[in-house]
Amino acid sequence: MTKIAHVTPLRKLPREMDYFDYIIPDKLAAVVKVGSLVEIPFKQSMVQGLVVGIDKESKFKKLKMIDDIIDSELVLPEWQINFIKWFADYYFYSLSSTVRMFVPEKPKLKRKAKEPAIGQISATVKHNKEIDKLGQLLMKKSQRENLIINHDQEKNNQLIINLIEQTVTAGRQIIIMVPHVEKIKDVLQIIPEKFSALIAVVDSGLFRQKNAWHEAWRNIRLNQKQIIVGTRSALLTPVDDLAYVYINEAESIDYKNWDQNPRYHGTTLARKMAELTGAKVILSSPAPNIEDYFVIKKNNQPIITLGANIKTDELQIIDLNSVRRKEFTYYSPQLLDNIRRTLATGKRVVLFLNKRGFSSQTRCNACDFIAKCPSCDLPLVSTETELVCYSCQHREPALTVCPKCHRGQLKDLGLGIDQAAADLKGEFAGVSIADPKARIYLTTTLPTDKTVFNDVAFIGVISWDSMLYLTDFRLMTRFFQQIWTLTVLKRMWAPEAKILLQTALPDTLAIKYIYQDYKRYFDSELAKREMFHYPPQSRLISIFTQNKDKKTGQAEAKQLYEQLYRQFYADKNLQISVPYQPHRQMTRGQYRYYILIKILNDDTAIRSWIKEFLPDYWTIDIDPMNVV
Predict the structure, then answer these.
(1) Which of 74, 106, 182, 513 is least enclosed, having the fewest CB within 10 Å?
(2) pLDDT band at residue 124 using 50, 70 and 90 as cut-offs
């Protein structure tokens, strides 16, 4: 009996085209299965494709035949076919584009692929009886998801090694995830040398190397690589027998593919993989996302804590409001005294300020004109010689006269890192500030390299308050997470150092609960989100349009909103915002208009409407990380 294969070509196709029907010839009937990679005639050429289904008949006539099977050994497991279909449906992404993400084309030229450089493996992690018991407990636990509050990186590393040893002994596979490429080396350095041949490193850079990506993909499918270390891209691999997905720094926004389609989140994918394969997901974080905490709490699962809470002798909070009653300053006496004492002992200082340039904005004191980027509409930041947009890198000469009123003086407002560096050079003459090895290292971001903390005895946060100035519902939690992440880095790389945090917002929840049990902060934040129906009390879909002409974009957004309103105004399950512009009103020279959809319960109706009626030029962001 003739069989029909539903084949998705490894070619970019419109979203509505899922697959094409092909006859399976008798000579291939025994080997072509769902998950097989085949060669098919498509348009005027032969292309590779994935069999996503097999049927007895087709509604189409004059079908072509499958030409050949590419590799009878490489059949994708059933769970991954279901995973691919779910991914395409959940993220409104075409099935063909999804298949191309998950399945590399077999190279036409059989070259020996060069193994990606793993780097030096020099494991120094010692076994710990407490962690060994925890590893055994995780293996035996029936819960599919576990949350680890990581306040001790050494114990976290010990647990990773324990789970690797378990997994390899059982002949299974483990995925160890990090938020960005720079962190991969940190995981590789803790893995014992004896496992080096079993490691596959997977990140987005591997996908650009066709031979290497195909070779790694094949080795993972055949279970020849049991330890997959990588970024969110590691979740696209065809693991054969998955035991664990271990997500380091699970709170990181970098697990979200936020700036291009498909806008997927690594944690969401990991949970679906666990559901389909029976694997366990372990979320490790110094301060987890509220949504992850809620999942564990709702299921009455225990939360595992490694390490202690923050102590007052470890982190000191300085209220800048009290300091500024005497004189306005960005630098409290306590901050300057700690820097002075540290330098006197020959030790180093690390300081943080999350604002680049000399100032936050340049404003006219007569007409309130603010210099803004022509591409992003964000305030331009002043440097010594020019105005810069750090979002799109637009630059223009510094202004001397207001271009609007031609009479007012332009003043730099707020503190940027360049101005802070100039201030510190004046205060501590002759002390180097320029680079990560300087006596005083001034930076905008948390370090990923432990050498930054070499010989450091004092860590000061000049200000992180600007994180809280926008109205995004997640910013308070990110502020809390930032404090905790810095504390964990200090414990690991500079255990004797003291942290001092300056803030003009000492009454915020993140500051109020920083010394207490983290659960008190999470429960307070959950109650606040419930009041306004924000995740995890709802789910979000953000859609946006963009246009070079502001009025056209505005009109498009208004028209679509009116369609949504007519369709769903009586639906108590949905809350649909009016069109709005984000804080960054322009991206790459185009104005953006957003509509935010809150789903309180069932999402079937709105998803069906989006599939059928949303114009293709609108962008869909499922579970967006930012809403302003």
Answers:
(1) 182
(2) low
